[in-house]
Amino acid sequence: MEINKLEGIIESILFTMGESVELQKIAAAIEHDEATTRKVIHQMMDKYEVESRGIRIVELNDSFQMCTKKEMYEYLIRIAKQPKRYMLTDVLLETLSIIAYKQPVTKLEVEKIRGVKSDHAVNKLVEYNLACEVGRLDAPGRPLLFGTTEEFLRRFGVQSVDDLPILNHEQMENFKSEAEEEIQLKLDV
Question: What backbone torsions phi and psi does residue 57 show, to the nearest 5 degrees?
Answer without folding.
Answer: -115, 135
